[in-house]
């Protein structure tokens, strides 16, 4: 059974402690929304789970299916089934989206079986087209250079396409909704649902109720000052939508926000 | 080779050079090391040359010994010109069938995949082994159309007038020290003539192999594209790895007549003990187009600035170059575009990659001569440094003596960004796979100009260069 357990995670960026005892467990098939004011450490969490070298884990542990990933490199975490849909995906000039995906798929297949010869071009194209159909993307998109000259919405869709291709066990979506119009949002949400029903666990970082309307997460968490302070269902999201974060600040007066997202 | 256990073995790039095998020495003739008048006489006699060619060789030799080395650019003082064999003759030369090529030599070209490539996608193949072309063949239908593709020696013998009319007109021996040396001791190379209006669809390929250590290879190629014709010529080169240096100093002359179009592509993959000092130039006449596609991956030191002398109105010159300098390598490459006529245009795109203290330089010249109008030129040079030890230099010279010109120059130097690496890592790519991917993307604008087969080869060579690149 797919499961990620984040236990009492403390993370520094430079000298500054951003995550201060973060705890969360996500099982395969579950969608957990993570909300909270700016500067509360949501993106830091995403990067720390993925293993970005600039994010120093002071203490705590992250277990994927019971095994600690703390000593694994970024690439190994990815090959084990972690995926981060970036808030700001990086352009790789001269590398087509399709070529990139093929290399990534093969890297993953090879990690599972070192004898793997890689996916054939025919099978790859078939797979890519089926996922593009799912996300209602133009096939020509695969021939474009990765994130180069992509609009904000195109970048986000390309992230979700990568997720659909790599079929991770746990996906972290870092503000994937920003830059997407309503139609694109619905398509992306449908895509995520299709994968989640296939036992993928999702951590959904967002500011907006709109995303939740489509995603319908069973779990909603409010992050404040580097940890989760409130957990609940959609009612919690609705309360935020109606009242903002002031009641959180009042309820946790001793918790200071970091000023870094 | 990709076995995990072999990883440490792979960390030394020298061991990744897969063309480093050598054959036993089967030379049929090899004069003393060092250059003398009598060696030049022997070469000329072997080739049964007319007197004018021997005279030219001798004049070039006199110039060579007087001419000082260049005062700029890479240090070539490690090249001991007295410790070089200037001519090494393989036992059988000039065969039209692979079956007639000596077994050892044929095996070498088999290993390099040349006969197979010839059958699949080439219009003609020439193969040079040490100092001579051992094989030269062209498709019959092209021969019937009057296309000439011969070893340079056979070109001189069979088409003496056409040869004499053009030889040395594009690159005179006085051009530089090494063009003088080449003119004195040239041996091997191709003679190509494409008649008026004939378009050769598939590439002609010449393949150069140095087998003997301390050898100098001085091929000379002359390509004449008559009016309205079209041809793509490709050269590839490899050599065994020896502890002692070898020397390659070719001269390529190309005449692009009215409305003709020539593309000359090089995939230079000499072993890292070869000094590669080459002069390549095209004279381009009215509305003609010359395109150089130049990839320098191998050699110890390369100095190479393919140029276009745009002599006719409407002529266009293009240069696409990639240089990859790994540990111990110096790639000093660039281009010269000289605008002698109005309405001419040129474009230079240079991409260089350095790693492991390699040094790559772009050295280029765009010149517009006195009063020539309506000239367009653009130069873009991008450098990618893979580690802090590596070096990239840019030496652009723009010399405009006219007012009605439009010249653009852009240069960039970049390193692989941490964010790019993290992004690719986060999709499961190792540092090495990620870096290789970024490098492949960096040179993609050039690779996509190559025919498919060469593009595949190019990407493969880049991957080999990258093995062990990440510590």
Q: What's the CATH architecture of the domain at 3-91 and 169-251 in chain A? A: 3-Layer(aba) Sandwich
DSSP strand (E) fraction of chain B?
25-35%
Report the strand count of chain A.
10
**Biggest β-sheet description of chain B:** 12 strands, mixed
Structural class of chain A: alpha/beta
Instruction: Find the CATH superfamily of the domain at 3-91 and 169-251 in chain A.
Output: P-loop containing nucleotide triphosphate hydrolases
**Low-confidence segments of chain A:** none
Low-confidence regions of chain B: 1-15
Domain count of chain B: 1
CATH third-tier fold name of the domain at 3-91 and 169-251 in chain A: Rossmann fold
Mean pLDDT of chain A: 92
Classification by helices and strands of chain B: alpha/beta
**Helix residue percentage of chain B:** 10-25%
Question: Radius of gyration of chain B from the CA trace?
Answer: 22 Å
* H-E string of chain A: EEEHEEHEHHHEHEHEEHH
Quaternary class:
heterodimer
Structural shape of chain A: globular
CATH class of the domain at 3-91 and 169-251 in chain A: Alpha Beta
CA radius of gyration of chain A is 18 Å
- Tally of alpha and pi helices of chain A: 9
